[in-house]
Design goal:
Strand content of chain A: under 5%
Radius of gyration of chain A: 52 Å
Order of helices and strands of chain B: HHHHHHHH
Number of domains of chain A: 3
Order of helices and strands of chain A: HHHHHHHH
Number of helices of chain A: 8
CATH topology of the largest domain in chain B: Rna Polymerase Sigma Factor, Chain: A
Radius of gyration of chain B: 18 Å
Number of domains of chain B: 2
Number of helices of chain B: 8
Distance between the termini of chain B: 49 Å
Strand content of chain B: under 5%
Structural class of chain B: mainly alpha
Oligomer: heterodimer
Largest interface: A-B, 40 and 52 residues
Helix content of chain B: 55-70%
Helix content of chain A: 55-70%
Shape of chain B: globular
């Protein structure tokens, strides 16, 4: 094998394209030819060279391309996340709204209220004045149901307020006169 | 490509993400200019999309893609040639694939293990690539740059494997001559 043939075969060997027989013959030639051995190193250097000739890709390369493709209608446009989710959420949302409406309609009064009937409101029964008076006599710091947090003075005020709010207490003989509360102690009647 | 043809945007995005770097690198090595390379690469993907309906699954996609990429860059280079810029497109001296007369000895310092590669040298190498005849440059870039086999290069260029072997060898010999001169 002469050097001319060896170099072309060497090129194919380095590219992984030579047969096993050709590769063996090239190796035998290189073992005895310093010039071709140097040529082998130079050819390998070309692989290093081309591997290092890369270039960076511009950050907007993809956007520019996809915009052009969309303009030419070569690329289906991506649906927005909102449109996608609204489409798929519409049915469950409608079902939920219907269910809520049904529940609310069941909770509401079946028929119209009778004319003149009072609206149904929660009625809080006021405690009797006697009980309130008992509570005012409870020792300070003693916990009384419904009055746990009130001091003795506060409980007394509450008791008087409840008496004032109870019209029956005014009709009782010997009851407290409404105006008496505003009179000085020495001028109280009865 | 099948999914893209059926209207899948995701399919094209996957195709793009797999191949865009290779296409841009190929265009850069063929044109020697980053901006022109990206312009050419954009055109390559547009052509791929436009020609999607002509693609046959029997052909290897990368071979088909590089066939389009090569034609696109050739058009770019021809346009530049028409505007007066010096771009070698013809085959080298001595006709097509004739081996022999281009053996240039270079310095032993080209040993890859000892060669310090600088950015400037990279630019010079790209310039040296541009001085190769287009047929040699394409064969060399596709094989050594993009990793296509001789057979795949033959398919892209529409020539025989033996012709590919010869062109790549001659490209190497010419490049070694250029780089030897650069290294003085």
């Amino acid at each position: 094998m002469d050097c001319g043939d060896a170099k072309e075969l060497l090129s194919a060997c380095l590219d992984g394209e030579a047969s096993a027989g050709d590769s063996r013959r090239v190796e035998e030639h290189l073992a005895g030819c310093a010039g071709c051995k140097a040529g082998e190193r130079r050819m390998r250097a070309l692989d290093v060279a081309i591997a290092r000739t890369g270039t960076d890709v511009s950050p907007d390369f993809r956007e520019r391309l996809f915009s052009r493709m969309e303009a030419e209608e070569l690329l289906p446009k991506r649906r927005s996340l909102f449109a996608f989710s609204f489409r798929w959420a519409a049915l469950p949302l409608a079902a939920a709204a219907l269910g809520l409406f049904f529940l609310m309609s069941r909770e509401a009064p079946r028929g119209p209220a009778a004319p003149g009937s009072a609206p149904q409101v929660a009625v809080i029964q006021p405690e009797s004045p006697a009980r309130a008076a008992r509570e005012t006599r409870a020792p300070e710091g003693t916990a009384v149901a419904g009055r746990e947090e009130l001091a003795a003075e506060e409980r007394e005020i509450v008791a008087y307020l409840e008496i004032l709010e109870d019209p029956a207490s005014f009709e009782e003989p010997g009851g407290i006169d409404e105006m008496e509360m505003f009179l000085p102690d020495g001028k109280k009647q009865g | 490509m099948e999914l893209y043809r059926e209207g899948s945007r995701d399919a094209f995005e996957e195709l793009f993400s797999r191949h865009h770097r290779r296409v841009i690198q190929f265009c850069y090595r063929m044109t020697g200019d980053r901006a022109r390379a990206e312009e050419a690469a954009q055109e390559v993907f547009l052509r791929i999309a436009r020609a999607a309906f002509t693609y046959r699954a029997t052909a290897k996609f990368t071979t088909w893609m590089f066939t389009i990429a090569r034609r696109t860059t050739l058009n770019f280079l021809r346009d530049e040639k028409e505007t007066g810029e010096k771009v070698p497109l013809l085959d080298g001296p001595g006709g097509e694939d004739t081996p022999g007369s281009l053996q240039v000895e270079g310095p032993a310092e080209l040993d890859p293990e000892r060669m310090a590669w600088s950015a400037q040298l990279g630019e010079k190498f790209i310039e040296a690539l541009q001085r190769l005849p287009e047929t040699y440059r394409t064969a060399f870039v596709l094989n050594r740059g993009d990793g296509l086999s001789y057979e795949e290069v033959a398919t892209v260029l529409g020539i025989t494997v033996q012709a590919v072997k010869s062109r790549i060898f001659r490209a190497k010999e010419m490049l070694l001559g250029e780089i030897s001169a650069l290294l003085g």
